[in-house]
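Good day; I would like, with your permission, to put a structural problem before you. What I wish to show you is a protein chain and, alongside it, a tokenised description of its three-dimensional fold. Here, with my thanks, is the record as I have it:
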Amino acid sequence: MFLALMCGAVAGAGLYLVTRVFARPRTGVGTMLARIDSGSRSMSTHTITAHELAEGGQQDRVQTMFAKLADRFEVLAADRGWQLGRQRQDLALMSRTVGFHLASKAVTAVGLFLLAPVVWSILTLGGAHVPPVVPAFVGLIFALVGFLLPDVVLRSEAGERRRDFRRSVGVFLDLVAMNLAGGRGLPEALLAAASVGDHWSMVRIRSALANARLYGTTPWVALGDLGKALGVEELEELSGALLLAADDGAKIRSSLSARAATLRRRELTQAEGEEGEKSQSMLVAQMLISTAFMIFLGFPAVSQLLKA
């Protein structure tokens, strides 16, 4: 009886949460301000191309429902004022919204939770006698794993992309120094360096510099805000160096070249460390294989000696 009451309570709470997510929220001044603030911090502007417009008409019903669920979670996060801390920087780096991430967590948790009853039903139909308590607890564990799994995947993907961005910052600094050596001013040199390639990191830097002109802010402030939003400390340090150069007239060209060289040495040291870790793991794997092979060869002889 207690187990049935607990299962009914969990199911009722789940239905209540689903209803609250899909229900239309109340509109108010605080809600509207939260949505605007969330949009400025989370949503990324994107121009729809003709190809994407054609693909958008071919989206199936599942994708449409997931998009609506993501929008609901976006509004819910804005209304509740959820900051998400480091995850918001990772989402901004991956060009994903908070609603998309929360919807992924919810869908993954529900899908893994329903996996346990399905497996239990298959085993029961096959003749296996498994108590109903087992799939209930296993389903809860699976739901917890499914709820945390998108966070782990996001952290891994964002870490890899952040390292790629740091490498691009070193190239960007060299290009800025070259443009300064060619006689261009600092704002023109920054925009020209960001316009060289179409790599996603250069596009983000170029967009930040272009928006700085529209908003009436300086390019170094825009770079600092971009570094703070993406969690890239190198951009924040670059913003401070450029601000110092603009205020005090420091020798920025040599400073940028030295900073780029420092970034390259740091990346090289990190790459060497990663390669060393991979070499050590390969060495351990080879030792384990050799040990297992020696045991395989010596086991018959040892077993015969023990029998004798």
